[in-house]
Amino acid sequence: MSTVSRCTCLTSTRCCQSESLHVLSDYYRSHLVILTPTFRAHGTNIPPLVPIMIGNTSATTERTLGKILAPYLADPTNAFVVSSDFAHWGLRFRYTHYQPSTGDATSLRSSSKTPTNPEIHDSIKKVDFECMGACETGSHQAWLDVLSETGNTVCGRHPIGVVMTGLEEVREGDSQGLFKFLCYERSGEVKQVSESSVSYASAFAVL
């Protein structure tokens, strides 16, 4: 059995509120489904876990939290797992950003003619890769800028931003602590405006 610990370094700040564990239980269980086999495969027990939920917050708060968590990121006995999808594209997500091969980006409507240069799924991939590229730079500001420019619906943008600012605080080398993306998938390849998809990407960073 794993234990759930309380992170007093966060709950003691004004920007954080302590939530009862039942609020986090669904998220906690979903992560355990992934983490448990990993630890068992290495013959180790699941260590104490500290669930941290970061909602819709500001860039300033991201930096504040990043500085608080920086010493824990630098501690080699700790590992951080950040959960996020990437683009949630479609009318039902209210995000239909499209980047044509030439000209300015636009938001497609239900009445829009189906674009083919490029196809919608290629535009989605391009935007996702722009965001992934910004994440890999290690610059929190670059991350904020690309999200502002594209409006990409990365649901975990804020926890990613927090960890990026924390890594910036403790990074010693140019390539140390930079995210490297390993996989990219989508739930489907959108060709019509009426369709939708969710993007998934995985990355890691080591100090």
- Specify the biggest β-sheet: 3 strands, antiparallel
Which regions have little confidence, pLDDT < 50, spanning 5+ residues? 1-5
- The helix/strand class is alpha+beta
Q: What is the tally of helical segments?
A: 6
State the CATH architecture of the largest domain.
3-Layer(aba) Sandwich
Tell me how many strands there are.
Answer: 5
Give the oligomer, counting copies of the same chain as homo and different chains as hetero.
Answer: single chain
SSE ordering: HHHEEEHHHEE
List the helices and strands and how they pair.
Layout: H1 8-11, H2 21-41, H3 59-74, E1 88-89, E2 97-98, E3 106-107, H4 120-137, H5 140-150, H6 157-170, E4 180-186, E5 197-204
Antiparallel strand pairs: 1-5, 2-3, 4-5
Describe the structure.
The structure is a single chain. The protein is of the alpha+beta class. It folds into two domains: 1-53, no CATH class; 56-204, 3-Layer(aba) Sandwich (Protocatechuate 4,5-dioxygenase, Chain B), CATH 3.40.830.10. Helices cover 41% and strands 10% of the residues. It contains six helices and five strands. The protein has helices at residues 8-11, 21-41, 59-74, 120-137, 140-150, 157-170, and strands spanning 88-89, 97-98, 106-107, 180-186, 197-204. A three-stranded antiparallel β-sheet has the order 1-5-4, covered by helices on one side. Strands 2-3 form a two-stranded antiparallel ribbon. Strand 2 and strand 3 (106-107) form a beta hairpin. Residues 1-5 have low confidence and may be disordered.
